[in-house]
Design brief:
GO terms for molecular function: ATP binding; hydroxymethylpyrimidine kinase activity; phosphomethylpyrimidine kinase activity. InterPro entries: HMP/HMP-P_kinase_dom, PM/HMP-P_kinase-1, Ribokinase-like. Pathway: Cofactor biosynthesis; thiamine diphosphate biosynthesis; 4-amino-2-methyl-5-diphosphomethylpyrimidine from 5-amino-1-(5-phospho-D-ribosyl)imidazole: step 3/3. The structure is a single chain. With 281 residues, the protein is an alpha/beta fold. Helix content is 37%, strand content 21%. Helix 1 packs parallel to helix 7 and helix 2 packs parallel to helix 3. The longest helix has 19 residues. The protein is globular.
Length: 281
Amino acid sequence: MRPPIALTIAGSDPSGGAGIQADLKTFSALGVYGTAVITALTAQNTDGVTGVHVSPADFVKEQLTTLLDDVIIDSTKIGMLANADVASAVADVIEARREDFGTIVLDPVMVATSGDLLLDEEAARVLATRLLPLADVVTPNIPEAAFLLEQNPATSAEEMHTQGEALRGLGARTALVKGGHLRGSEVVDVFVHEHGTELLRGVMFDTRNTHGTGCTLSSAIAAQFARLAATEHGDDLTVMASAREFLASAIEHAIDWEISKKPETGHGPTNHLITVGSDRL
């Protein structure tokens, strides 16, 4: 026997709130064995990103092929890709070995919570033209969806729906357009799939501890798909709902956290370990 297995292809975050670190913690919290291919090292904390050291594209490809030659992958989350060479290398391997990646969740990481740019324009074009058509789910927030589509940011759920349909038009099987940037009493995400559109509503928490929420949600989606691969029960909407529930709980259980020496200036992390005993943290 083997456990459900998920792969994250993303950058490293030394502060532990986002990137590879958040993904692996989320996989573990949801009972999934995590594997990882690192696309970049970052120097960052809760205040922001001070430097990025991108992995050579050939080495990213070597990481992927070496892993896939040995380990069975049920689902894959793609996060920070940094530049066009790395994005192209990832696309090359997926195009050649699509079945080895399982269900693919594409999180088009472009800007950190702090506002720092994490993806250049050429890489964004590769993501839109080569990786989107390979994705089962794409999970942009409102600015990311607008950037990918070269449109103005959505200002309503109706416009989010229109942009979700446009992302499906670029090849993604489904699109979850996240509405957290539309501040209000609740969060409304729009899930566009082959059978229609669903508005997924949740609580808008008043907290600065939102670093890595996009990474956490996309890795939770990948984890749930990995679990489905083992059980063959459930559907896309069930996966989205359970992943959003995990993220909401992770945010709620970190509202009072002060990881930073200056908690009033930065963005702290969520609590990825809620399923393993948050009362001990």
